[in-house]
Amino acid sequence: MEKGTLLYEGKAKQLFQTDDPEIVWVEYLNQATALNGAKKDQISGKGELNNQITGRIFDYLKSKEIKNHYIKQLSANEQLIQAVEIIPLEVVVRNVAAGSFSKRLAIPEGSPLKSPIVEFYYKNDELDDPMVTEDHIKLLEIATADEIAQLRQMALEVDQALIELFDSMEIKLIDFKLEFGRQNDGSILLADEVSPDTCRLWDKKTNEHLDKDIYRRDLGDIIPVYQEVLNRLEKRGE
Ligand code: C5P
């Protein structure tokens, strides 16, 4: 398979065409960003870690019958995925209060939530990714009512599967963000990535952060922490 022209460049990944219009070549970058791009750094090794972590997690989700776009690893920082039209929504699932949720509602970080909460954010840099309700999503014609129901259900299924996975790695899944895409026939696939960049992961015993909050909050070096997440994933697969 040939790597073709650049299709799209995001904050953490580049997407390239291949000789098959149904397949996209992804290169994970070393760039880290926070505060919608206001904080930006090159962190050597980050792309390789997120590529490998995402690949393993998407394979695990496939084994749990959660349809996703992942095909296979190509190299330490490259993978092949199925081409989809990304739905411009960030679907956030929360099990424990943290981050923007704690700030907005004055609920202390670390407070467990009785049942998982699903939130939708409109992916739009100019608007700073505002939170949107189902009515807003329909009004803006981002997705239909039926698609919104599917997104919510798939997000909750991913939550259950990931809680189980991370629990087996001695990690608590606090919250995470998902993105979804449509295939030509209209079916919806989980897309983008699932990594310590997109999840809040706390060590079960010590509550230490094993995720991007280390970077966002200037708590230290993310590389050993992301490596620890990959090591625990690999150990599980042995
Ligand atoms: O910042 P907030 O508390 O809303 O983040 C909720 C979850 O979504 C966190 O796990 C965070 O890593 C993830 N997220 C993300 N990309 C964004 C915003 C949030 O991966 N643009």
From TrEMBL:
<comment type="similarity">
    <text>Belongs to the SAICAR synthetase family.</text>
</comment>
<keyword id="KW-0658">Purine biosynthesis</keyword>
<protein>
    <recommendedName>
        <fullName>Phosphoribosylaminoimidazole-succinocarboxamide synthase</fullName>
        <ecNumber>6.3.2.6</ecNumber>
    </recommendedName>
</protein>
<dbReference type="InterPro" id="IPR028923">
    <property type="entry name" value="SAICAR_synt/ADE2_N"/>
</dbReference>
<keyword id="KW-0436">Ligase</keyword>
<dbReference type="GO" id="GO:0004639">
    <property type="term" value="F:phosphoribosylaminoimidazolesuccinocarboxamide synthase activity"/>
</dbReference>
<dbReference type="InterPro" id="IPR001636">
    <property type="entry name" value="SAICAR_synth"/>
</dbReference>
<dbReference type="GO" id="GO:0009236">
    <property type="term" value="P:cobalamin biosynthetic process"/>
</dbReference>
<keyword id="KW-0067">ATP-binding</keyword>
<dbReference type="InterPro" id="IPR018236">
    <property type="entry name" value="SAICAR_synthetase_CS"/>
</dbReference>
<dbReference type="GO" id="GO:0005524">
    <property type="term" value="F:ATP binding"/>
</dbReference>
<comment type="pathway">
    <text>Purine metabolism; IMP biosynthesis via de novo pathway; 5-amino-1-(5-phospho-D-ribosyl)imidazole-4-carboxamide from 5-amino-1-(5-phospho-D-ribosyl)imidazole-4-carboxylate: step 1/2.</text>
</comment>
<dbReference type="InterPro" id="IPR050089">
    <property type="entry name" value="SAICAR_synthetase"/>
</dbReference>
<feature type="domain" description="SAICAR synthetase/ADE2 N-terminal">
    <location>
        <begin position="6"/>
        <end position="232"/>
    </location>
</feature>
<keyword id="KW-0547">Nucleotide-binding</keyword>
<dbReference type="InterPro" id="IPR033934">
    <property type="entry name" value="SAICAR_synt_PurC"/>
</dbReference>
<dbReference type="Pfam" id="PF01259">
    <property type="entry name" value="SAICAR_synt"/>
</dbReference>
<dbReference type="GO" id="GO:0006189">
    <property type="term" value="P:'de novo' IMP biosynthetic process"/>
</dbReference>
